[in-house]
Specification:
227 residues; alpha/beta; Rossmann fold; Methionyl-tRNA Fmet Formyltransferase, Chain A, domain 2; six-stranded mixed β-sheet; three-stranded antiparallel β-sheet; 29% helix
């Protein structure tokens, strides 16, 4: 009888990597991109592990208490528990972080740790998420082969707050590096792009480049009267 696994994510780049993984590994695999799909997969699979790569919903207690659920967080926990880890890390001036695989428990990002992998914060948010996705699937392969026992977190926790869309407004007083970082940290699928308001226009920025004399970026202009 094949051992079953569930991989859950709401991001398209994880689905592409998941499809490649199916060609490389045996076992019985299930993909979930919404809470309803997750419940269906759980009922069908009765999985050994459920891997949460990027999940925007609260996981029901009856899932994480019954099955071994592994979630991935982009900080060196217990530092940086909480929401919007990538954006908060860049705003805090970090250029490197850890991708942490931890066992899901009742408190957010507080579970015991399976492993940590170094992760560069260079490039756009989407480029960073793609690197993190590759690392996540490496960790998934290791976990299903080694079945490690996670170890409790050590040290005092610090917490991040989840960012809101109106916090994507570019600060008026910023250096070139700060503007570049602000634009790139929001440049990914499903994230509110960095923007400014000018009259009835909302001007959004993406694909930022830091140059010797400033910052260049792609621009989209939206008119509030047309929304």
């Amino acid at each position: 009888m094949n051992v079953a696994y569930v991989v859950a994510s709401c991001k398209s780049w994880h689905k592409e990597r998941y499809d490649r993984m199916l060609e490389e590994h045996g076992g019985e695999w299930y993909w979930a991109s919404s809470p309803d799909e997750l419940m269906d997969c759980i009922r069908q699979a009765r999985p050994r592990y459920v891997f949460f790569l990027h999940w925007n919903w609260i996981v029901p207690v009856e899932i994480w208490t019954k099955y071994e659920c592994v979630c991935f967080h982009m900080t060196d926990v217990p530092y940086g528990r909480g929401g919007s880890p990538l954006q908060n890390l860049i705003l805090a001036g970090h250029s490197q972080t850890k991708l942490t695989a931890l066992k899901m428990v009742g408190e957010v990002d507080a579970g015991p740790i399976y492993t940590k992998k170094s992760l560069s914060l260079d490039g756009s948010a989407e480029e960073i998420y793609l690197r993190a996705g590759e690392l996540s699937f490496e960790v998934i392969r290791w976990i299903i082969n080694a079945e490690p026992e996670p170890q409790e977190q050590q040290g005092e926790p610090t917490f991040f707050k989840r960012r809101k869309p109106d916090q994507s407004l570019l600060p008026e007083k910023s250096s070139s590096k700060e503007v570049y970082d602000f634009i790139r940290m929001l440049d990914a699928e499903g994230y509110p792009r960095a923007f400014i308001k000018y009259g009835d226009m909302k001007i959004e920025f993406s694909v930022a480049k830091l140059n010797a004399d400033g910052v260049s970026a792609s621009v989209n202009i939206f008119f509030e009267s047309e929304e």
